[in-house]
Amino acid sequence: MERYIDRFEREPLIAERWKKIEELENSGIKAFRAKYDKKNMIGDILKHKPEESLKFKTAGRLMSLRGKGKTYFGHIEDQSGKIQIYIRKDELGDELFNKVVKMLNVGDIIGVEGELFITHTEELTLRAADIALLTKNVRALPEKYHGLTDVEIRYRKRYLDLIMNKEVRDTFIKRTQIIKLVRKYLDDRGFLEVETPIMHPILGGAAARPFITHHNTLDIDLYLRIAPELYLKRLIVGGFEKVYDLNRNFRNEGISTRHNPEFTMVELYQAHADFNDMMDLTEGLITTISKEINGTTELTYDGVDLKLENFARVHMVDLIKEVTGIDFWQKMSFEEAKKIAKEHHVEVAEHMNSVGHIINQFFEEKCEEKVIQPTFVYGHPVEISPLAKRNPEDSRFTDRFELFINKREYANAFTELNDPADQRGRFEAQVEEAKRGNDEVPPVVDDDYVEALEYGMPPTGGLGIGIDRLVMLITGAPSIRDVILFPQMKPRD
Question: Is the pTM of this model over 0.85?
Fold first, then answer.
């Protein structure tokens, strides 16, 4: 231990704690116990009344300690709550009091056994009949009145964030509850949860830059999946009629308050359904979660009052016309559309070669920021929707929607394309787009998927919902890093 302590010669407070640990060990007290028979969570203890005369045995982190001489008050905290403890020398005995209690520091993890009583300040308190040191704290916790407020430290040292900020623990408890509710909502409607590959031999299922890894034995490059879509639809071909995969996706893109390169998504497919059914399912799911977690469908997010029910439904072209006055229902050439884009300062990238691309660019640049209340924006152009079925009344557009709430996308859904000839044509168009410089589309055709469609996929509706953004919305978190336990961070020098 001496060599270890020497590491902290420039951090005297830590070195002092280690010396205290040496003293404890020399006196026969273990500073790092292997086990403690904790019988009661603090939250459960707080439900009882002192007059019940019950003895409780619990454990938690010591978050405060005050007193002198023969009497101490403190607070211990576990995942379920925080309770005051009362320590008296004459109740514990000289040896335990002197060897353990006097050596305690805020941050230590201790076990406490005793009965409840009410102090003169009317605080429910556990009178310690026995105390055990379970784990000695070496590094001092942040000062309790200011807590841990440095955002950089909070994200990098999430364990410290969880210790100091109860609301952070509550957010992640809610995240778990939300994920359980998503599964329950789908399970109750006959969906089967399945697992699909994380490593894909061919990029596909969405438009995004991938992470690439290498399999040494096979000597091939593989992509960390950007979406499970094509595997899930293979299962629909195989005879499963309702499936979902709730798992991680990976996209090698920017990091922001709304984007993390590793994120959680639920993607589902239902045979004999279309994108209208997916709208109904999406609205029902989000409304149910909001009611279960918050007790209401009304919430305030980022200072905006939102109502998570009776979602609006609007065609992308109608929304563009409403916002800009431009009518893309009128048929026009690419050059005409490009000229309109230039007049309205809408960017047209090199890989864009169709009116559909420009329509989508108009929506992204001019309309997304205008969508506040929950709105299904549907009717995406064929060129940007390679896996969605064409609209039967206007083949320029697809039966696809994206759900927007307060300027942000939360869901993406299609009536799935099940015509193998049309699908191959869309894939081939993407290959040409990749050659023109779009690094977010697959550079090769997924022949196996097209072959699967040739065996026959029933009419199908598909849906993907970003879990992280949904948790942000329901919990009021301003950044995606607030709802991911260990978000990706730029390495320190």
Answer: yes
